[in-house]
Write a structure and sequence with these properties.
Blueprint lengths: L14 E9 L4 E8 L2 E9 L4 E6 L2 H6 L5 H17 L5 H5 L1
Antiparallel strand pairs: 1-2, 2-3, 3-4
Amino acid sequence: MDQNQGYTTFKPTGIKIKYTNVDLVKKQVTAIISLNGEVQMTVVTDLDVHQVNKEGSLRKVLDVLPDVDEESYIEQIVAWSKIFIEKKITDPEQYFE
């Protein structure tokens, strides 16, 4: 047997990003970040004026994901927001199915 063999166990983190609103006219996307069902932060990305408004804290989320910082987490949300607006996706949940 090869000594380099092993396995990886994947466990759910409890983190969920739900995109609750995509406004194609105003070019705004709202995302809610929750941990184990508890809302941690709401992020509103306004692509028209290149502004991101955050309400809440990602401290608990980042404790679960120690290799991620808040800036890169928010950048991921902004990147998805751009995709939703560019592709005219108003229901991100359906898009991910």
